[in-house]
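quick q for whoever's on today - can somebody do inverse folding on this one?? i tried earlier but teh output was garbage lol. tokens:
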């Protein structure tokens, strides 16, 4: 099938049928060594996708879930970075490893991109370990062996983020490309991207717009030229972390990624303590506090939303996007949390009566720049619904978790497991049979009382 939806093709009958369909999606996308992000459009492994996919896989097989994370961590660079794409042998994706220019910089035998993505891995690894421990037996032994064997690598990943992207004392991580945020073309990056002026570079032919033929769903060619120029700037200095601040035309303190990092440091500390790495656990908790404070300090008192900061101009970026709810992930400030929840449930967000389902769009539904069909400029992302709901549940907010679960399952009943959805009509958009959408469906269904 094409990456565009036939909205009548895959409706599911009930939650049990949804579970079967989700398992079928993951099985169909499984190459044995990795579960690709999606058929056709994304035939490789994406870093933060893989973490969500692994937790979905763990509802069926803890062993297969840990294999997924093993394949990802095996691509870790000497610096400690986990690359945002680990390429399979499937052809037809652009930009490919040759365009990235990472050969000779990435580990021998690894084909990867040269940037990172949000560090959700420790949070989802902890979830898998807790699931395996509760199951006992062989699953518990597999999980125990895995964390003892790989935890130093996950700690190196966090040390790289702290040292190369967050050592300035701001409590916020720097990204050098919007792709590193996972929210590629979000309006939050419009200002920084507007100052990127592509120079001479090789011509390119995009593959995404050949597969999602409704171009209104995808970034423009002008945006893509900027993306590729930033890749070239990195490749020209061989992805040298020390040189990037001097050469990159895009440098943003990413508040959402920083909140994810704060929470993930706490989760990695729990796993480190479990295997006796108390010194590492203490250091991880210090980083958690540092980045939790950095996120809280970014909040605009007027809007109540967290803000990114443009490093090159020093300006705060306060557009009403999903990233504004970063404190829901990490804050320990009760009044801030309550204000964020009030906004989240208000008429600009999940309380907008025009929504097909009371779920957060990637930008405010009342924002003038809303593009309800275009990638991260307006659509609803199922994976973000689950992640934010899980963050709330870990705070003990079962009521809101259940509310988001009910709405999310209703959204997914149409059965395509789409990459993202139109907020007002519920139309599935982007790539169909998206692995991380199927994975979070399985997580919702694995919840006590689920189907």
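ok took a stab at it. sequence:
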């Amino acid at each position: 099938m094409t990456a565009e939806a036939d909205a009548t093709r895959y409706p599911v009958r009930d939650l049990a049928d949804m579970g079967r369909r989700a398992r079928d999606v993951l099985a169909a996308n499984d190459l044995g060594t990795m579960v690709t992000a999606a058929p056709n459009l994304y035939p490789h492994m994406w870093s933060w996708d893989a973490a969500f996919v692994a937790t979905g896989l763990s509802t069926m097989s803890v062993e297969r879930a840990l294999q997924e994370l093993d394949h990802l961590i095996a691509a870790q660079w000497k610096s400690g970075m986990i690359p945002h794409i680990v390429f399979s042998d499937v052809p037809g994706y652009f930009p490919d490893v040759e365009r990235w220019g990472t050969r000779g910089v990435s580990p021998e035998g690894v084909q990867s991109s040269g940037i990172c993505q949000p560090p959700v891995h420790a949070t989802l690894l902890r979830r898998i370990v807790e699931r395996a421990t509760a199951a006992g037996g062989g699953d518990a032994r597999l999980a125990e062996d895995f964390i003892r064997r790989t935890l130093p690598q996950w700690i190196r990943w966090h040390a790289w983020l702290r040292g190369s992207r967050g050592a300035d004392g701001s409590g916020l991580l720097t990204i050098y490309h919007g792709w590193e945020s996972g929210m590629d073309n979000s309006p939050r990056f419009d200002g920084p991207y507007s100052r990127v002026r592509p120079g001479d570079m090789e011509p390119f032919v995009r593959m995404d717009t050949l597969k999602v033929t409704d171009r209104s769903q995808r970034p423009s060619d002008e945006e893509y030229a900027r993306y590729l120029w930033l890749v070239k700037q990195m490749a020209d200095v061989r992805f040298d972390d020390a040189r990037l601040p001097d050469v990159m035309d895009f440098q943003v303190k990413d508040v959402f990624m920083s909140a994810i990092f704060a929470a993930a440091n706490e989760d990695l500390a729990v796993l480190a303590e479990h295997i006796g790495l108390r010194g590492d656990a203490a250091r991880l908790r210090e980083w958690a506090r540092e980045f939790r404070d950095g996120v809280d300090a970014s909040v605009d008192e007027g809007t109540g939303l967290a803000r990114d900061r443009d490093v090159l101009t020093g300006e705060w970026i306060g557009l009403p996007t999903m990233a504004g709810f970063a404190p829901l992930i990490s804050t320990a400030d009760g009044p801030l949390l309550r204000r964020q929840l009030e906004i989240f449930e208000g008429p600009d967000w999940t309380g907008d009566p025009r929504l097909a389902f009371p779920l957060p769009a990637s930008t405010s539904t009342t924002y003038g720049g809303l593009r309800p069909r275009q990638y991260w400029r307006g659509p609803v992302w199922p994976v973000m619904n689950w992640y934010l709901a899980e963050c709330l549940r870990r705070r003990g907010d079962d009521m809101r978790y259940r509310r988001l679960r009910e709405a999310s399952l209703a959204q997914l009943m149409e059965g395509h497991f789409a990459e993202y959805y139109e907020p007002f009509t519920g139309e599935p958009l982007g790539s169909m049979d998206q692995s991380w959408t199927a994975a979070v469906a399985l997580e919702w269904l694995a919840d006590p009382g689920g189907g």
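fwiw The longest strand covers residues 173-175. also Confidence is low (pLDDT under 50) at residues 1-8. so keep that in mind when u check it
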